[in-house]
Design a protein that fits this description.
The protein has 362 residues and is α/β, with parallel strands linked by helices. The protein has two domains: 2-135, Response regulator (Rossmann fold, 3-Layer(aba) Sandwich); 138-257 and 293-347, Rossmann fold, CATH 3.40.50.2300. It is built from eleven helices and 14 strands. The longest helix is centred in the middle third of the chain and has 17 residues, at 166-182. It is globular, with a radius of gyration of 21 Å. It starts with a helix and ends in a 15-residue tail after the last helix.
Length: 362
């Protein structure tokens, strides 16, 4: 698959991997070519599919002014560098790299194509030709915790993590803090599967956590496997990136999803207007509509829904910061003092568990 993917770029982008709207009219200006690079399959039911939905909305918003395409199943290794080079060589002027592991390849490719605009999701290294962007995931995960803390009967929650990178560490921390805000007895059990998308590993992790007493499980992986496992076991779970309730209508309590279209439209407009600049970092959350909570399960009691809505409104208004102190790590060391909020430096390099999470990251 890896070789066949790369071979398609000798002739541009293969039709099987591309969705594009042609230009109309012989005198029309050449459309802006915008490409998306995806880690997973476009119909993964989660992360990649949400980016694909954003691409489709972007194309619809600008019509024949732009021509969008995508490449799916691009690994986070050296082969991705060749994909980015081929896309830039094919005349794409704006390229969205939709996975964290594409960061280093982008740093190399931007030096070869200084006129091409690159955008990197969840990245932290900018450049004259690179912008990084990410949702305020922690806002959604805090709210998942608020629901979990009120719905658990065992006071034991579970979390399926992909990789212990800062953005994922923030999510398990935020979910734990949200749960503790409504239920101080909470304990969080993590399992790291070291992959973004592997339904088999994700299901096994969910079943293991449920076997250890976790009656509500969150995830930071891409498939609905944990939702399906919870449905079968009669426990609860949360989706991420997309609403996965169709895979477990009784199990999914809600989910922290994303709508990327507003950002993709805004950035593409900047390129069309000639106002796009590099060396920027953007984080959008609930307020901007990038983080979107999935519908609440009818099984959640009205009193719990009320608390959820109050916390959500407080986050949107700026009155509630999920990482406001006091916060201790799970060894008892104070990391954020009372009255303070976690600094950006700590936020972007978070590598420790908040109190209540069992185990050690290292």
């Amino acid at each position: 698959m890896k070789q066949s993917l790369l071979k398609t770029f000798g002739l541009g982008v293969a039709a099987a991997m591309v969705a594009a709207v042609p230009t109309h009219g012989a005198m029309a200006a050449d459309p802006l070519k915008v490409a998306f690079v995806y880690l997973g399959p476009v119909h993964d039911g989660g992360w990649t599919e949400q980016h694909e939905n954003g691409r489709v909305k972007l194309q619809a918003a600008f019509g024949d002014k732009i021509k969008t395409s995508y490449v799916e199943k691009v690994p986070e290794d050296a082969s991705s560098e060749r994909v980015f080079r081929e896309l830039a060589s094919a005349g794409n002027q704006l390229i969205f790299a939709t996975s964290f592991g594409y960061g280093e390849p982008l740093q190399k490719v931007t030096k070869l194509f200084p006129k091409v605009k690159f955008e990197h999701v969840n990245g932290f290294k900018t450049a004259p030709g690179i912008v990084v962007y990410e949702p305020r995931f922690e806002e959604g995960f805090y709210l998942l915790g608020v629901i979990a803390g009120q719905m658990t009967k065992s006071n034991t929650l579970g979390f399926i993590g992909s990789f212990p990178i800062p953005s994922v560490m923030r999510n398990i921390g935020a979910m734990t803090l949200g749960a503790q805000a409504v239920n101080p007895k909470i304990t969080m059990l993590p399992i790291w599967v070291n992959t973004w998308y592997d339904p088999g590993k994700e299901r096994q992790a969910a079943e293991t956590l449920i076997g250890k007493g976790a009656d509500v499980v969150g995830q930071n992986t891409d498939s609905p496997a944990s939702i399906q496992a919870a449905q079968e076991k009669g426990t609860y779970a949360f989706s991420i990136d997309a609403d996965m309730s169709s895979y477990g209508p009784k199990a999914q309590l809600t989910g922290s999803t994303e709508d990327w279209s507003g950002y993709y439209i805004a950035e593409t407009k900047k390129v069309l207007d000639g106002t796009w600049t590099g060396n920027r970092a953007t984080r959008w959350g609930l307020k901007e509509g990038m983080v979107v909570m999935a519908p609440l399960n009818a099984a959640i009691p009205p009193a719990a829904v009320k608390v959820f809505e109050e916390k959500k409104a407080a986050i949107i208004s700026g009155k509630l910061n999920p990482f406001a102190g006091p916060i201790k790590d799970n060894t008892g060391v104070e990391k954020v003092a009372a009255g303070a909020v976690m600094s950006e430096k700590t936020f972007d390099s978070l590598d420790w568990y908040v109190a209540g999470i069992q185990g050690s990251v290292k």
